[in-house]
Amino acid sequence: MSTARTENPVILGLSNQNGQPRGSVKPAGAPGGGGGGPQQQQFNQMKGTINNGNSQPAPTTNAVIKPGDDWKKNLKLPPKDMRMKTSDVTATKGNEFEDYCLKRELLMGIFEMGWEKPSPIQEESIPIALSGRDILARAKNGTGKSGAYLIPLLERIDLKKDCIQALVIVPTRELALQVSQICIQVSKHMGGVKVMATTGGTNLRDDIMRLDETVHVVIATPGRILDLIKKGVAKVNQVQMIVLDEADKLLSQDFVVMMEEILGFLPKQRQILLYSATFPLSVQKFMNAHLQKPYEINLMEELTLKGVTQYYAYVTERQKVHCLNTLFSRLQINQSIIFCNSSQRVELLAKKISQLGYSCFYIHAKMRQEHRNRVFHDFRNGLCRNLVCTDLFTRGIDIQAVNVVINFDFPKLGETYLHRIGRSGRFGHLGLAINLITYDDRFNLKGIEEQLGTEIKPIPGIIDKSLYVAEYHSESGEEVKP
Asked: Which portions of the chain have biased composition (kind: Polar residues) (predicted)?
């Protein structure tokens, strides 16, 4: 079979067939309560974000806030998210963001993100991080981990110091862009916090020029930040906090040597925060070597999100495309992410989906970075309904409108499965995960169910829309039972 072409992303025709309307996708509502991701309309052009050093947007209000003023009246709040939320994010102690004695300007950014109250991981994490203590935090995908570390990180930035004070390391370029945008938006009223994203696949000269100016927070992939440190361009001798987001991936064989090198350049008195949904032995070994009496947080009584209903359809390899076509015609998809196990299969499936008349983008690691940026940006902003991808997209990517995840190819590892299905049901909302299972997958299916302590049910003839469609449920204290 010839190698699939990777030069340009598939930006395939939009259709109005079978419930897949032409045109943009209606966003599913603002993320509530914390760290799930910035508003879709706030997500700026990706290429500019990377190459221009993430210059800070101007504050949205010019009025001077005087003592005694009700500063909350001047906030430009997003529409309230009325979708139902599960106890993954509602089972809190009842704390408010104002309870943490945060700067008023930081609180303004938090509320304008639509974050109303801290989620459980934020309640556990923020006060400890503010105290300067190391943290090992384990919480489910989509429950507000980004907000849990960005809020204390920004609170502790000293604008009088023109140096890098905090590093956030993430495993993928798309996640670096997403976290940097959240950081920029939350800090927009703080009067000059300079945030920079730096990743592989972009012009090194642009990063060098940006670091010649003031930068307070760097959000980076490991290879690029290590390169900049070794060149003497990124001066990290005054970094007081380093965050490892998706720590299990960063401490895997792919990255652990680079992470050890990066830490070697940092001051000995630094705060380390580790966040992830899964913690293999590699994380334990790193923690023992580098963390000082870390505060351990574990909010993982169960591994899978409560709001994600999981089904499997037993098919042959030849039946998969037909089955996918049937799902498209019967499901009420706001946006979907469809996973394949290789870059070549991603491109072939994207072509098939377009031939069936559905709107489709694709993304994988072999594409040029500017094309990845464009696809990620456009899909996040609702310009297309379906995205076919590899496991590149399983780490931390938060797109609120996604309500259906389909494993066209079933993964071999429980960890991969957990991160894939976590792309739907973000921030306590409801979603659907459908797995196409062949004869060869049957043992993996059973093994992953046992490993994760979850049940993947046979797909019914009709799937109840209240399990995954926002319009069929509203915010209440009750959880929807699958």
From this structure: 43-63
Sign for the CA dihedral angle at 223, 228, 232, 234 comes to negative
The pLDDT value recorded for residue 246 is 86
Place of tokens 């919480």: 139
CB 86 within 8 A of CB 307: yes
Residue 309, strand partner residues = 432
Per-residue pLDDT of 33-86, as tens digits, reads 444 433 333 333 343 433 334 444 444 444 444 554 577 777 887 777 665 565
Write the secondary structure of 438-464 as one string of H (helix), E (strand) and C (coil): CHHHHHHHHHHHHHHCCCCEECCCCCC
DSSP 3-state assignment of 430?
coil
Buried b / exposed e over 442-475, threshold 16 CB at 10 Å, is eebbeebbeebebebeebeeebeeebbbbeebee
The amino acid at 65: I
Per-residue model confidence as pLDDT tens digits over 142-154? 678 889 999 999 9
Phi, psi of 434 (to 5 degrees): -120, 130
Q: How many beta carbons lie within 10 A of that of residue 440, not counting itself?
A: 9
pLDDT tens sequence across 305-336? 567 889 999 999 999 999 999 999 999 998 99
Q: What is the pLDDT of residues 399-427, one digit of tens each?
A: 778 889 999 999 998 888 888 887 775 55
Return the pLDDT at 418.
84
SS (H, E, C) 351-383: HHHHHCCCCEEEECCCCCHHHHHHHHHHHHCCC
Report residue 283's pLDDT band, with 50, 70 and 90 as the boundaries: confident
Could you tell me the sign of the dihedral formed by the alpha carbons of 105, 108, 113, 119, in that order? Answer: positive
> What element of type H or E holds 121?
helix 120-130
**Contact indicator for 425, 431 with CB cutoff of 8 Å:** yes
Q: Measured between alpha carbons, how far is 348 from 55 in angstroms, rounded to an integer? A: 38
Cα–Cα distance, 145 to 209 (Å, whole number)? 31
Using the predicted structure, report yes or no on whether residue 23 has a pLDDT greater than 80: no
**8 φ, ψ to 5°?**
-125, 145
Q: Are strands 335-339 and 195-198 parallel, antiparallel or unpaired?
A: unpaired
Q: How many residues appear in the chain? A: 482
**Tokens 């994988």 map to which residue?**
364
Phi, psi of 40 (to 5 degrees): -65, -35
Domains of the chain in sequence order: 11-28+305-472 (3.40.50.300), 40-77+87-298 (3.40.50.300)
Q: Select the more confidently predicted residue: 93 or 432.
A: 432
Three-state DSSP class for residue 189 = coil
- Of 246, 254, 252, residue with least CA distance to 285: 252
